[in-house]
Amino acid sequence: MRWWKMLGLAGIMGVAATGVVIARAERRRRAYTPEEIRVRLRERVVEGDRDRLTK
After folding, report:
1. What is the DSSP letter of 54?
2. Which of 1, 30, 40, 47 is the most exposed place for a label (fewest CB within 10 A)?
3. pTM greater than 0.85
């Protein structure tokens, strides 16, 4: 029965690690100002238009 405890502990640790990774990515995403987001979106639209025109 001891291996069940180890398996459960490993599962809990995996869930916690996944939560940490998601929280870190969310903080990084929210660090942009609205103007920075607009600029980046406009750049992506221009890139997409350029790619579409070259095909």
Report:
1. H
2. 1
3. no
